[in-house]
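Quick one, T. Sequence first:
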Amino acid sequence: MKTRKILALLMAVLMLVGCLAACGGDGGSTTETQAASGSTGEAVVTESWTEEQIAQMGEAIKGEAGGSAVSLKIWGPELAQDVLKSQAEAFKALFADYADINLEVAVQGENDAAANIINDPKAAADVFGFPSDQLTKLNNANALAECYFPENVTADNTAASVAAASVDGKVMAYPETGDNSYILVYDKSLVSDEQAKSLEGVFEACEAAKKKFIMDSGNGFFTCMYLYTGGLVTEGFEEDGMTQKFNDYDINQVTASVKAFADLFTANKDYFESADTTAVADGFKNGTTAAGIAGSWNIAAVKEALGDNAGFAILPTININGTDTQIINMFGYKFIGVNSQSAYPITAQILAYYLTNEDCQMQRAEKLDWAPSNAAAQDSDFVKNNASMSALMAQTEFSIPQTALAGTFWDPLAALGTYMIEPTNDFSTEAVQAEVEACIAGIRDE
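Structure tokens:
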């Protein structure tokens, strides 16, 4: 991080708000802080920030506070509350010499974050987590404040995550994770690594063990694999900026892919279950499940349930008209955004930057199994030697970016996925093609 660039950015912001606080600082802050009581009790280090840089940020916060307390609300998912609270307390301690900072950490599902920010921005959180596909919606509603540290974010994170966080060349959010996707998880005592290479092999193992394979076919985030594997690709929006644009796909190939999944599910109806991804870890725990498709947010629970028998791999192949075809899925990122109507924009920006720095990303990797977007963190031995993170990173080669998706994208996919898991439905080529065409038309709102 370049000290001069931070200084220039913060001074420019301070001048804009009429605050002329000096950014020299008294050097009283340290590069390691202890989380306050009520959190996890573990230190959150900030080794990537020098004391001079912390002092500059502290003076900016002090100037914004103007002798009063700064109060901010943070939204994050339920699974991350303990870690988020610990990091929030560490942030307060880091800048305690400069201002009285009150941070409220509240549960807010990331999938609904954008809607709640847009519906009532003044009552919403100042800093919040959200998935990459919601960036366009938030930006179009002018709900996001542009990042104050674009050059630093670009230098710290992978190029792909920064590109996904940008609109028209402007960085609009702080990359938090580089793993918003899903992989195959399995019980290694029941499913061999070789069987895990193909969906047919996975079902073969499930049948032998008399146990389930679970995936959430009623969720468009997972259902999209049926279309993507057949060659359909999302390519942003049409000229109107709203209608989903697709590549020049072959409807026959897409239909063949969808039919292959439907036929395989039907043939293995006794061992296939469509359920929320939390059911995968629960199934491992109670001994009813041999394999499943789990989101990155469920990996820690899978590891807890299976221990040394936890297996992780990229999504398997599926046989389509005699050809083993790699399953293609959706891969996205999680971001932390700053509410454009925050009463304390400078402190909110520094907080968002802090929560996404290398050290905080590494703590989430260690505690939550969230793979980082930070390039240095990705290069750490911990991440490189982590089987689930390695599988998630490898899956990116076979994924479509979770960006620039229309608001109409999800419901038609969910309907298609629900249709496919009912064994009594008509899965003739003609019937499947009609469902595929209806799904695509629904996504395009035609």
